[in-house]
Amino acid sequence: MRRVATVSIAWAYALLFLLSGVEHTAAASTFASPAFQQQWQHGEAITPNFWGPLGTAQDGRQEPYKEAPGGQRLVQYFDKGRMELTNGAVTNGLLATEMIRGQIQMGNTTFENRPSPAIPIAGDPDNVGPTYAALGGKAKALLDAAPAQVGIGTQAVVSTAGDISASATNATAPAVFTLYDDATKHNVPRAFADYRVTAGLPTIGFARSEPFFTTVKIGGQPKQVMVQVFERRVLTYTATNLTGFQVEMGNVGRHYYQWRYGSANAAPPASPSSASSVTTAVPTLNWSGYEVDAKNVTAIHAAWMIPPVTAPPATGYAATWVGIGGAMTQDLIQAGTEQDIENGVPTYYAWVEMLPDDTLGVSTRRLPANPGDLFSVTITNTSGNDWTVLLENRTTSQHLSLTTTYQSCNCSAEWIEEVPEVVGVDNPAIANFGAVTFIEATATVGGAVKSVADLGAGPLSLVQNGKIVAQTQSPGSDRSSFTVAYTR
Fold first, then answer.
1. Which among 145, 241, 307, 398 has the fewest CB atoms less than 10 Å away?
2. CA 254, 259, 264: angle at the middle one, nearest 5?
3. Which residues make Cβ contacts (< 8 Å) with residue 345, sequence separation at least 6?
4. Do 320 and 462 form a contact (C-beta atoms < 8 A)?
5. Got the DSSP string for 67-107?
6. Torsion on CA atoms 386, 392, 397, 399, rounded to nearest 10
7. Could you tell me the sign of the dihedral formed by the alpha carbons of 463, 285, 438, 396, in that order?
8. How far from the centroid of its chain's Cα atoms is residue 1's Cα?
């Protein structure tokens, strides 16, 4: 990719594409099961945003579960949680518990260990913290069994880094403990105890932490909130909210999905079988990820969470993309997201490029591209030299569908994290993107859709100044996901 100044796509694409425009489309096309729809409708009747809208849910998928028939069960993720069809009954996962413990449940007594996610528990997605990882680390004392203290007020304060201190002010009535969960040995303040009566214990679960105060950004404004982790949900109390909306459920379902299936904010999986670094990766000067040479490559696809970029370095560039061609030839059709930081200021946008033409940046007014958004790209050779490029922001439920003509060799497929060429900058540095996990990494070769692992794609690692700065890891157990980690 060659980075140029972002241009308004309304003009630039008029030369190359027939625009179908941006539409708000549901990430989930429908409820994965009538039983899921029934439970969703029941919850939304209790309180608004009980599960979150279908438009921001994920499509149903099969997940491994040891005791389920065939070792798989149907699940569907919503903003606030997950529904599971287990042996004919609808259950709801202990998602909050799994994240703070760093364990993904794969059966009744079977777990896969994974570092707790560095995803903010509450507030806007770009909050620094506190995170689930911090709560399971520095703030772990809040997870320990506590004595019953009914009548005492919440005093714990947790910083963005996870440090615990005590509040110097007396707790107001909503923060006073009125209940003690003997099953898990934690106190519950009035605001959350009352809300749990309305929402139901099966939905919320027992408390898994003591409640605490923290300051987070909500709608871009810093606010003090009270937070408590329960078995299935995270509850927050914001005193300045309108009556009836002071207690809210956190986006546990969304956070868990990011953690399990790929997120720039989530720590890479710890299991060597699913995310070990590839020691045989071919070193390159600008690409990391996977590439495969093959005949008749007619489509490529992947999704990823747009990674936030941070200093140092104060100025750096990173592009996440998929493409066809370009490995051994001069032709390359590619599309993805750009994550740059210049003098400490980050910028993000989507783009499309067809060599030898310059990169065409997509205006964020037409298709947002924010750090933490789940983004996907599908490039398809429909016939002859006719192509479609589909860019989707699943978080905002928007997409941009483009058509063009392009002569390609159809001879390679790539899933890449790159330091792009930058006009006017010699030897640009790779931006500190933390880690990016590609999911759904597939290509259509010879008419068959195959995963990155099944295609036998080769790993690449990016080297600058003699040092690996972007390390590719092995594909996960699903054979269609992998992580590239910043290592400088």
1. 145
2. 100
3. none
4. no
5. TSGGGEEEEEEETTEEEEEETTEEEE--HHHHHHHTEEE-S
6. -40
7. positive
8. 24
Strand partners, 445: 297, 448
* Alpha-carbon gap, residue 483 to 257, rounded angstroms: 15
446: left (phi over 0), alpha (psi -120 to 50) or beta: left
The continuous run of DSSP H or E covering 482 comes out as strand 482-486
Distances from the Cα of 164 to the Cα of 67, 116, 215, angstroms? 40, 18, 13
Taking the alpha carbons of 182, 183, 184, 188 in that order, is the dihedral positive or negative?
negative
Alpha helices in 155-227 (DSSP H): 190-199, 201-204
Question: 474 to each of 102, 413, 460, how far by Cα in Å?
Answer: 20, 17, 11
Q: Which two tokens stand for residue 226?
A: 């009270």
The alpha carbon torsion through 58, 59, 62, 64 (nearest 10 deg) reads: 0
The model's pLDDT over 355-396, given as tens digits with 9 standing for 90+, comes to: 999 899 999 999 999 988 889 999 999 999 999 999 999 888
* Predicted local confidence at residue 262, as pLDDT: 73
Report whether 476 contacts 272 (CB < 8 A).
no
Non-local (6+) Cβ contacts of 189 within 8 A are 153, 154, 171, 174, 175, 176, 177, 178, 211, 226, 228, 237
Helix (H) or strand (E) holding 338: strand 332-342
Residue type, 85: L
Topology of the domain comprising 2-25+271-486 = Jelly Rolls (2.60.120)
Low-confidence stretches of the chain (pLDDT < 50) are: 2-26, 263-277, 279
Supply 142's token pair: 């809040």
Cα distances (angstroms) measured from residue 30 to each of 47, 64, 79, 394, 435: 21, 22, 15, 15, 31
- Tokens, residue 421: 């060429």
Strands 282-284 and 458-464: parallel
Peptide bond between residue 312 and the one before it cis (omega within 30 degrees of 0): yes
- pLDDT (0 to 100) of residue 424: 84
**Strands (DSSP E) along 221-286, which ranges?**
221-229, 234-237, 247-249, 282-284
Q: Which residue type occupies 281?
A: A
The pLDDT assigned to 280 comes to 66
**Domain residue ranges of the chain, discontinuous segments joined by +:** 2-25+271-486, 34-261
**CA proximity to 413, closest of 350, 324, 344:** 324
